[in-house]
Amino acid sequence: MNKKMKRGIAVLSMAAMLGMQMTTGVLAEEVTTNASGVPLVFEGNCSYQTQIQNVGWQDWKSKESLSGTTGKSLRLEGIKVSISDIKNLGVTYQTHVQNEGWQDWVTDGNISGTEGQSLRLEAIRIKLTGTEAQNYDVYYQVHVENTGWMNWVKNGELSGTEGKAYRLEGIKVVVLPKGSPAPVNTGSIKNVILMISDGCGSNEILATNYYTEGKAVAQVYEQFPTSVNMSTYSHNELGMDDDLASVYDPATIWDSFDLLKNLPTDSAAAATAMASGTKTYNAAIGVDENEQNLVNLSEDFKALNRSTGVISSVEFSHATPAGFVAHNASRQNYSEIANEMINDSKTDVIMGAGHPLYDNNGERQTTVEDKNYRYVGGKDTWDNLVAGNLGNDADDDGVVENWNLIQTKEAFESLQTGNTPERVIGVPEVYETLQYNRSGDLAAEPFAVAVNDNVPTLDVMTKGALNVLDNNEEGFFLMVEGGAIDWAGHGNSGGRLIEEEIDFNNSVEAVCNWVETNSNWSETLVIVTGDHETGYLTGTAGVYDAVVNNGKGVMPTLAWNSQDHTNQLVPFFAKGPGAELLKSYANGSDPVKGAYLDNTEIALAIRNLIN
């Protein structure tokens, strides 16, 4: 009998002992709407904390975050649950204490269970109270010692066991609009693909849709079930004196057209926030405001024996891909960052521009200076990559896995199918960007200037990366960046903006096709968003409005109002396990854009899903 069969039998046996709670499902209902017919969003705060035996009360948690522990044999003795910021909505709960039985129901922040008496919890029940309770469901799940996470239950149902001495170690709680599907069971998510259109706001998507299709809402991701917005602000410059100055405030941001230009994030701080869940200063790569290393999602997945990858249409050591792998005080330290990514990280796939021997037109350079090697870690690092001499023990099996370097367009295309190496680093034969920085008129319409024909497209790189990463049966994390949308915004180049966004959109379609062909939407989460907007693109100069449709194949009417980043909300889309959780985080409310979450909540949500 193989290990998988043994594990399956063990799980089924334990499920039977626990009354088959692990297979409990929640029937779908119609999601409650407000008076205007818009689906409700829980805009209050449901917080909870746990008392751990011999440790004490833990900090308050919310939004499905773990309170307690898992796998440490630290048992829970008591819980508190509280709901605030919603009128006429409260909470009541009770606990089942080992050898004592069910305790009386208590309400809003009171202790259920015990403190310091070594009487461990075995089960909980939670219900909402008040007239608003008819509009919401409270979901909760418990982690049982030596068993794991139980399925989510709701509205007074039992979570845990009675009289079987299976003690609780941790809990998670969330309030959702009535009829919302249950959250994804912790640990059930296999793959996460995060796709970032660097510099892209809603008008960048709209302009591309108008040019390619002659209509709005033309992309596959615009049909994703979670479609909200995201705040992107950073803590501005190094040091904490100005941390609050750049916070997105929907109550005041629309007072003046120019306020959206105020203290925007850069790509390094934005990537670090999305990858680690922590705000930091502009230019920071994977470090906090004290320049201490932060754990990123790639490291989280590696800790679970899953594969990881980052790919970009700009240099692979540029801010966004670097933020998901490396740790450095400044994004400008390209060579240091590249060396960490190549020599120290356990990443399995790295792809992006930065080839030292080619220029931005994909032509071989006649003179190569030392500075040309900065994006790939220096000449020595590059020479060793070419020789196949660099690598490390990426999967902790005691064996060094060297990098396999690919450079030609044909090599990238071949990687899309068939057998693959364990680790791949792909550096196309171009210097800074796949296409944006090629010669020619930046004011020209899309594709009027011949493209570099010796490099792969972003969707080809994406399909190649997926073909490598899906060799790991445990799953993977992949970050895909359309990096030069941002460059087009800085350059106020409408034509090349649309070129770059088309390339990114094709990559999203490639990912969705991969999910439906090689995986499924029950095990793979796909997120599509931007890290910030660049160029302050509108339809009318000095007015926050939409670009104007002039028909398919015709440049829309647009106006650039900046050559820098802005602090505006960016679109956020998600599909797959965890999409509803991410939607529940969108409890910010903007008078113009609507519901929004924060970029730090991407990491928070994914960590809750993978535990």
What does this structure look like?
This protein is an alpha+beta fold and 611 residues long. The chain has an 11-stranded mixed β-sheet, with helices on both faces. Strands 1, 2, 3, 5 and 9 form a 5-stranded antiparallel β-sheet that branches. Strands 4, 11, 12, 13 and 15 form a 5-stranded antiparallel β-sheet that branches. Helix 9 (458-469) packs parallel to helix 11. It starts with a helix and ends with a helix. Residues 1-29 have low confidence and may be disordered.
Q: Work out the number of β strands.
A: 32
Radius of gyration: 25 Å
Number of helices: 13
Helix-strand makeup class: alpha+beta
Shape: globular
User: Helicity level, as a percent range?
Assistant: 10-25%
List the helices and strands and how they pair.
Blueprint (H helix, E strand, L loop, with lengths): L2 H15 L27 E8 L3 E2 L3 E2 L4 E2 L7 E9 L5 E8 L3 E2 L3 E2 L4 E2 L7 E9 L6 E9 L3 E2 L3 E2 L4 E2 L7 E10 L13 E7 L4 H12 L12 E6 L35 H10 L20 H7 L3 E9 L3 H5 L10 H11 L4 E5 L25 H9 L3 E2 L8 E2 L1 E3 L2 H6 L9 E3 L31 H12 L6 E7 L1 H7 L3 H25 L5 E6 L3 E2 L2 E2 L20 E2 L4 E2 L3 E6 L3 H7 L2 E3 L3 E5 L1 H11 L1
Parallel strand pairs: 16-24, 16-25, 17-32, 18-19, 18-24, 19-23, 22-23
Antiparallel strand pairs: 1-2, 1-3, 1-5, 4-15, 5-9, 6-7, 6-8, 6-10, 10-14, 11-12, 11-13, 11-15, 17-30, 20-21, 25-30, 26-29, 27-28, 31-32
Helix pairs in contact: 2-11, 3-13, 9-11, 10-11
List keywords for this structure.
611 residues; alpha+beta; five-stranded antiparallel sheet; 13 helices; globular; disordered N terminus
